[in-house]
Amino acid sequence: MIRTLLLSALVAGALSCGLPTNLPQLSRVVGGEEATPNSWPWQVSLQYSSNGQWRHTCGGSLVANNWVLTAAHCISSSRTYRVLLGRHSLSTEEPGSLAVKVSKAVIHEDWNASKLSNGNDIALLKLASSVSLTDQIQLACLPPAGTILANNYPCYVTGWGRLQTNGALPDVLQQGLLLVVDYATCSSPSWWGSSVKTNMVCAGGDGVISSCNGDSGGPLNCQAADGRWQVHGVVSFGSLGCNYYHKPSVFTRVSNYIDWIQKVIANN
Ligand SMILES: *[C@@H]1O[C@H](CO)[C@@H](O)[C@H](O)[C@H]1NC(C)=O
């Protein structure tokens, strides 16, 4: 009986991820574009408190009702964080959006801020309360452990990051098409060389399609054959400048951390 319940809970969980009510518009606009509102409903804005105000600092993805996936380098132990969910415009108090405090941050044990090129730039944030899923707030799917995307697989990076090097921060959520660059190519000397490891995913870097928008901690969203969106990457580095030839954005490869994610959620 318990087994059946557990099984149906898992199946229900799997069914309720990665399928936005408001479908993203999948165009091939160079340089990024405004997303259709609430079409990436697992995207969150991670914010910290500064002089009584909340400031956007990173993106993140809702992966369980009370857990957000982000980058380790987004988290500073001295700060107080919250996440905004269900938002399109950061400056507008949109109906149906939620602000929830972060009660605990679990940073990967092998993360070392002075060794970014070792990877493990991944963290899970526990929310002070579980959120209810709505058309505006939904869970991302995670890829099966070990999944490696083929070279040129199309994915979308999303976030409130800059659109151009040193450009203004956009107020509404942006999306940008990025093509996956496989490890053999990305780690070759004229690309990222040894700064890229097998625990990372590269995408972009053809010098034409922007690898600039999106921001740290946010998702690399890739659609699986069944139509569901899976978060294959967490924006880690290389995305602050835009459109550098052979310098794609580098993401933490989520499929390498499925066991870690499941353990952290089960043990906290
Ligand atoms: C992180 O890397 C630096 C530089 O190699 C090293 O000195 C330091 O001990 C490392 N920190 C941890 C916690 O492993």
TrEMBL record:
SUPFAM superfamilies: Trypsin-like serine proteases. It comes from the Eukaryota. This is pancreatic elastase II. GO terms for molecular function: serine-type endopeptidase activity. It comes from Sciurus vulgaris. It holds the Pfam family Trypsin. Keywords: Disulfide bond, Hydrolase, Protease, Secreted, Serine protease, Signal, Zymogen. InterPro entries: Peptidase_S1_Elastase_sf (IPR050850), Peptidase_S1_PA (IPR009003), Peptidase_S1_PA_chymotrypsin (IPR043504), Peptidase_S1A (IPR001314), Trypsin_dom (IPR001254), TRYPSIN_HIS (IPR018114), TRYPSIN_SER (IPR033116). Its EC number is 3.4.21.71. It is found in: Secreted. It is an enzyme of class 3 (hydrolase). Coiled coil: none annotated. One of its GO terms (biological process) is proteolysis. Residues 1-16 form the signal peptide. It catalyses: Preferential cleavage: Leu-|-Xaa, Met-|-Xaa and Phe-|-Xaa. Hydrolyzes elastin. Residues 29-266 form the Peptidase S1 domain. GO terms for cellular component: extracellular space.
